[in-house]
Design a protein that fits this description.
CATH architecture of the largest domain: 2-Layer Sandwich
Strand content: 35-45%
Helix content: 10-25%
Number of helices: 3
GO molecular function: ligase activity
Number of strands: 10
Keywords: Fatty acid metabolism, Ligase, Lipid metabolism
Number of domains: 2
Family: Belongs to the ATP-dependent AMP-binding enzyme family.
Shape: globular
CATH class of the largest domain: Alpha Beta
CATH topology of the largest domain: GMP Synthetase, Chain A, domain 3
CATH superfamily of the largest domain: ANL, C-terminal domain
Distance between the termini: 47 Å
Structural class: alpha+beta
Organism: Virgibacillus salarius
Radius of gyration: 17 Å
Order of helices and strands: EEEEEEEHEEHEH
Protein name: AMP-binding enzyme C-terminal domain-containing protein
Largest sheet: 5 strands, antiparallel
C-alpha cells in the first residue's frame, strides 16, 4: 500500500515554516486520496487541497487552524472554498473571504467580505447575481460586506478568525 503524504503550504506552494505561527493550506497526496477530490480545481500536481488551513509546530506536527466549512443555504450546502473561487472570477473583486454568519432559520449563511478593485462600482446585488449566473443559482453569499482590506498574517494569509469579530 502507498503512503499518504500531508503538507502545509503557502500561496507559493512552499511548505510553511515549522514554527507554529505561519498558516497555510493543508494538502494531501497518496493512494486513495484522488477519490476525495470534488473537482480538478482542488488539485495541483497530484496534491489535493483539502480546504483546511493549518500550521506546523516546531516538532513537525500539523495542526488544523481553520477547518473546511460547508454552509447551509436554501439549495443544500455551500463550500466556502468553492464560493471564494467563484467570487475571485468576478472582474472587479480583488480579494474575498467567506465566513459563516449565524442565521435564525438556517443555522448559518455564507457571508462574504469583499475588497473591490479601485475602478469598481459593483453593488452587493451585482455580486450575488454574478454568483447565481455562474452556478445556476446554487452558490452565492447571502450577505456581503465591502471592505478596504482583509486582515492577514505576516505571510499574507487571510485571518478569518478576525473577520468573525467584524460582524
Amino acid at each position: 500500500m502507498g503512503q499518504t503524504k500531508i503538507r502545509v503550504v503557502n500561496s507559493s506552494g512552499e511548505e510553511v515554516a515549522h514554527n507554529g505561527i505561519e498558516i497555510g493550506d493543508i494538502i494531501v497526496k497518496g493512494q486513495g486520496t484522488l477519490q476525495h477530490a470534488e473537482n480538478r480545481n482542488m488539485m495541483k500536481n497530484g496534491w489535493i487541497f483539502t480546504g483546511d488551513k493549518g500550521f506546523i509546530d516546531e516538532q513537525g506536527h500539523i495542526h488544523v487552524k481553520e477547518p473546511f466549512k460547508d454552509i447551509p443555504n436554501q439549495q443544500g450546502t455551500i463550500s466556502t472554498a468553492n464560493l471564494e473561487q467563484i467570487l475571485m472570477k468576478h472582474p472587479h473583486i480583488a480579494e474575498t473571504a467567506i465566513i459563516p454568519l449565524p442565521h435564525k432559520e438556517l443555522g448559518e449563511i455564507a457571508h462574504a467580505f469583499i475588497v473591490l478593485d479601485n475602478k469598481s462600482d459593483s453593488t452587493k446585488q451585482d455580486i450575488i447575481n454574478f454568483c447565481k449566473d455562474s452556478t445556476n443559482g446554487t452558490s452565492y453569499p447571502q450577505s456581503i460586506t465591502f471592505v478596504d482590506e482583509l486582515p492577514k498574517t505576516p505571510s499574507g494569509k487571510i485571518l478569518k478568525v478576525e473577520l468573525q469579530k467584524w460582524l
